[in-house]
Specification:
Length: 170
């Protein structure tokens, strides 16, 4: 008997395409719906880069376009962000503040130059009110090298049984 896939959403923000590439690969492996977060204000060029850096470091939540998918309807939500100046991408911060993840399990992934993943994952957990079932952090080099074994391990962890709550969470 074929096992049914849980209703899954992969949601992400990508300024330059690296995070998008990983989100698409995760969504394909999980047979998931895909939601790209779109900032209302452009992130193009040097000005967009500077604005992104400022918003990330002072933890702003800029306006985003209305999402196509309602996060409340999913059993598993996988959330991806680039690391901006060791921080969560500000448009994803806005989405997390608006999302209804009350009944969902979550997984987190990020792409980065070299570091900042732990801080980004901690921020995602705090904003979502959820501990991740699995996390995946890839450097720009790893994204370019297409480390599929890391993606496969991440997806396998998300497909397993739900993580047992820690004693402190019971």
């Amino acid at each position: 008997m074929k096992q049914a896939h849980p209703r899954t959403l992969v949601v992400y923000f990508s300024r330059n395409g690296r995070t998008r590439r990983i989100a698409q690969a995760v969504a394909e492996r999980l047979h998931a719906d895909l939601e790209e977060i779109h900032a209302v204000q452009s992130r193009e060029g040097l000005l967009g880069y500077a604005q992104s850096a400022l918003e990330a470091t002072v933890m702003l939540a800029p306006a985003i376009a209305a999402p196509r998918h309602d996060s409340a309807g999913y059993e598993l939500v996988v959330i991806g962000s680039p690391v901006w100046f060791w921080s969560l991408a500000s448009p994803l911060r806005t989405w997390l503040l608006q999302a209804d993840l009350q009944h969902a399990r979550v997984g987190f992934f990020c792409t980065m130059g070299s570091s900042g993943a732990r801080h980004v994952f901690d921020t995602m957990a705090a904003l979502s009110g959820k501990q991740a079932e699995a996390t995946l952090a890839l450097t720009e080099h790893e994204v370019r090298a297409r480390h599929s074994h890391q993606l496969d391990a991440f997806v396998q962890a998300l497909q397993g049984p739900p993580a047992r709550p820690h004693a402190a969470n019971r």
